[in-house]
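Please, structure for the following, as tokens.
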Amino acid sequence: MTDDLLRYLESYLTDNRKKLFQKVLNERTKHFTVVLEDIYQPHNTSAVIRSCDIFGIQDVYTIENEFTNKISRHVARGSHKWVNIHRFKKDTDNTIPCLDHVQQQGYQLIATSPHIDSTYLPDFDISTKTAFIFGREKEGISDIIKERADGFLKIPMYGFTESLNISVAVAIILQYVTSKLKVSHLDWQLQPSEKREIYEHWVRKTIKNVDMIIDHYLERN
């Protein structure tokens, strides 16, 4: 998108909206990301995406082997419009292609499981770019994830119950690691080019009939 076209589209936004976009972008990060493996309950996927938006995680990866991820708009509350959702959903085993792709982006793979000899959340080193992987609601992470993971993470628990709902676990982990990230000396913020790309996407998402408006602009210019 050219600068002139972007300025033209910005004329359809209020100043408050533009300021809000910039404020949120300054808090966004790709230092952490979330990978969901075969989540089958739409409200769980939606709640996870909502948490990612709240805690500033820009990218979510979904592995859809047996179940197709569907968004519950009631639960997501529009958060899916502001987060990049990368879906791996071909008619094959999508786990390995997703993991390969995420690793190519420079992420270490940290699988979450309460049943494996894992690092406890308060002891987790946030300095490395990390993809947190969450498995299916009942079964947890698959054997492939266990084999490919660079490490494992779990939340300290002190009751009789041995596991948390996936959306709760995601929220707890993201709140902890992003809070530590914000007070660290790490370069965790988006690059200017990334901010620009996301900002353009958000602008388009905000404007009704944006394709018609762009066509009209291009005809005149």
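The chain has nine helices and seven strands. The chain has a mean pLDDT of 91.
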